[in-house]
Design brief:
single chain, alpha+beta, 7-stranded mixed sheet, 5-stranded antiparallel sheet, globular, disordered N terminus
Length: 296
């Protein structure tokens, strides 16, 4: 990749949610649990966001906004009762012990005090058919890990024997689509993208009941880093060129950028006609968990 050297891999720009994540990553001491530290952090993010917004280049407008579809919060039925009971058990263990299935997270001395359980409400879950296979899945946004590296977005399904099955795991910065695709924003902006946030795109594979990585995208913003910007590649004149990686493991740092038109052609291959999904999110509380299996 013919890109100039940058001295910081984490820029203080883009939206406040992403900024907060990057600030957490810079200051990697264990997170204090409770409402007051969270309020202080949000105030800091808000002030910094106001400062950097003055001179941060805008994100590119690469396509028309997609329509949004809200998934309904469905009642308990005979068909979904067993799966919901299992999902409720998973969520109760997370709330009581700060432990995800398979012990894939560090409980960090969690004892379930009132303050700790109050802090756990920062996490969210949704039970809905997010992949379009006709069954409900459990989607968890786990953000109360001690380090940003421990934050996870997880999707669980049940197999034919009624056992829990992990379909998907990524950093919790997701956009869902009604054709089964998921756009997963990276935990960091790698330095040249300006207002464009890099991401990996996944599609649902019904045969394996898993999500398949179909490529990742990074960008180079002319306004953010004009030095050595490949203007000849930017035939659309948008001020952005894109790195489209079909296989990050073998291609990262080796591919040349492409014009926006080629990037959009790749993206439309997977998202043409798709609408964004709004999931029925609930905060992680005992009361919300109980609604999963409560009749009426």
């Amino acid at each position: 990749m013919n890109a100039p050297k940058t001295y910081f891999s984490t820029e203080l720009h883009t939206n406040q949610q992403a900024l907060r994540c990057r600030l957490d990553d810079l200051f990697t001491a264990p997170r204090r649990r409770g409402v007051f530290p969270l309020v202080c952090a949000l105030l800091l993010v808000s002030m910094l966001g106001s400062l950097v917004a003055c001179n941060t280049p805008s994100a590119p407008t690469v396509s028309a906004p997609l329509p949004t579809v809200s998934l309904p919060d469905l009642p308990v039925t005979e068909e979904n009762r067993d799966a919901r009971t299992l999902y409720a058990q998973v969520l109760t263990t997370l709330l009581d012990e700060n432990l995800l299935p398979g012990e894939i997270n560090d409980p960090a001395g969690y004892t379930g005090t009132v303050a700790e359980r109050e802090a756990m409400t920062e996490n969210q879950f949704a039970v809905c058919d997010v992949d379009g296979d006709g069954r409900e899945e459990l989607v968890i946004q786990y953000i109360t890990a001690n380090m940003v590296a421990g934050m996870q977005a997880l999707i669980y399904d049940t197999d034919e024997n009624g056992r829990l099955h992990l379909q998907f795991s990524e950093f919790p910065n997701l956009t869902f689509y009604d054709n089964g695709a998921i756009q997963a924003g990276w935990s960091h902006n790698q330095g040249l993208a300006g207002g464009f946030w890099p991401y990996t795109l996944y599609v649902y594979d019904p045969e394996s009941d898993l999500y398949r990585d179909v490529g990742s995208v990074d960008a180079w913003s002319r306004d953010y880093q004009p030095q050595n910007y490949p203007a000849d590649t930017d035939t659309s004149g948008t001020g952005f060129v894109y790195y489209v990686y079909r296989d990050m493991g073998t291609e990262y740092g080796l591919l040349s950028p492409v014009d926006e038109s080629e990037y959009l052609q790749w993206r439309e291959e997977y998202l043409a006609g798709a609408a964004e999904l709004e999931l029925p999110w609930q905060s992680l509380t005992a009361e919300h968990i109980q609604t999963l299996t409560a009749a009426g």
